[in-house]
């Protein structure tokens, strides 16, 4: 589907969910989402940027439901980047509190649905201790679940992850001769996480913004103008439909 068609297929709820045309064998095992456009969504309504972040919660949980419905095994969402510390202190503070509250509000329902919650990113001094505690509780509560892994990229940067992997590799005492892709991968934050098959970015921006730089070497990218707070599972299904029309070659030739 061309981007212009994609843009014209936005659904305003209530809509009839339709997944019959999605081939269950071709559902991406791992979907990454850059949840962007909260601020613009709020500004358009004369609201504070932080109201846009709050409205993003429903989008996230409808997307989680949609991913579960499709049988996606890994969903990774970009919640806060290593560059987002540059935002005004009030907005940063709000985001810390908001994520803390969201974990509290949602952990039980995620647990009941068999979702394993994990985090991707640096746990540095800037992340409030209370948020770290909530993260640990969510991790522990859902550790045994395997229906889907929801990875929340928080204080995450793709370059920071590569830097941390190289540091850890050097500290492990390997020689230059032993450094290869497998060795680097083994030192990434979650060595067991498969690369995303599909990455969706909302809000009409055509960039990666430091998300999963190493991992998305061969990911299919889908960009949608929908602002994150308006995103619903039907938009996810549209992205998966588009994914199913792509021809992934990984540098080889068509079959
Ligand atoms: C995405 O929405 C959420 C975060 C980056 C935390 P934005 O806050 O970036 O919203 P826009 O892009 O300014 O509209
Ligand atoms: C990417 O969005 C980060 C998250 C969605 C958490 P940004 O809004 O920070 O990205 P830029 O600044 O537009 O590249
Ligand atoms: Mg943004």
Portion in helices: 40-55%
CATH architecture label: 3-Layer(aba) Sandwich
Distance between the termini: 21 Å
CATH level-3 fold name:
Undecaprenyl pyrophosphate synthetase
Order of helices and strands: HEHHEHEHEHHEEH
CATH superfamily: Decaprenyl diphosphate synthase-like
Q: CATH class, please?
A: Alpha Beta
| Overall 3D form | globular
Number of helices: 8
Number of domains: 1
Mean pLDDT comes to 94
Unreliable residue stretches? 1-15
The bound ligands are:
3-methylbut-3-enyl trihydrogen diphosphate, magnesium ion
The secondary-structure class comes to alpha/beta
Query: Biggest sheet, open or closed, and with what strands and sense?
Result: 6 strands, parallel
Strands, count: 6
Strand neighbour order, sheet with most strands: 3-4-2-1-5-6
Radius of gyration from CA coordinates? 18 Å
């Amino acid at each position: 589907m061309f981007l212009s068609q994609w843009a014209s297929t936005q659904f305003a709820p209530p809509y009839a969910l339709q997944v019959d045309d999605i081939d269950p064998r071709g559902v991406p095992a791992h979907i990454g989402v850059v949840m962007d456009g909260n601020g613009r969504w709020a500004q358009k309504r004369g609201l504070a940027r932080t109201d846009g972040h709050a409205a993003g919660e429903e989008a996230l949980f409808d997307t989680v439901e949609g991913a579960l419905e499709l049988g996606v095994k890994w969903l990774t969402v970009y919640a806060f980047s290593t560059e987002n510390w540059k935002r005004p202190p009030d907005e940063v503070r709000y985001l810390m509190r908001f994520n803390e509250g969201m974990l509290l509000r949602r952990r039980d329902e995620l647990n009941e649905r068999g979702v394993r919650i994990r985090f991707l990113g640096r746990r540095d001094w800037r992340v409030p201790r209370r948020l770290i505690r909530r993260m640990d509780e969510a991790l522990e509560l859902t550790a045994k679940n395997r229906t889907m892994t929801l990875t929340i990229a928080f204080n995450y940067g793709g370059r920071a992850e590569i830097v941390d992997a190289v540091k850890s590799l050097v500290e492990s005492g390997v020689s230059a001769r032993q450094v290869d892709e497998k060795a680097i991968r083994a030192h990434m934050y979650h060595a067991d996480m498969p690369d995303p098959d599909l990455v969706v970015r909302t809000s009409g921006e055509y960039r990666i913004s430091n998300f999963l730089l190493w991992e998305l070497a061969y990911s299919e990218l889908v960009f949608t103008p929908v602002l994150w707070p308006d995103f619903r599972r039907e938009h996810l299904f549209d992205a998966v439909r588009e994914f199913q029309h792509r021809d992934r070659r990984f540098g080889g030739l068509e079959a």
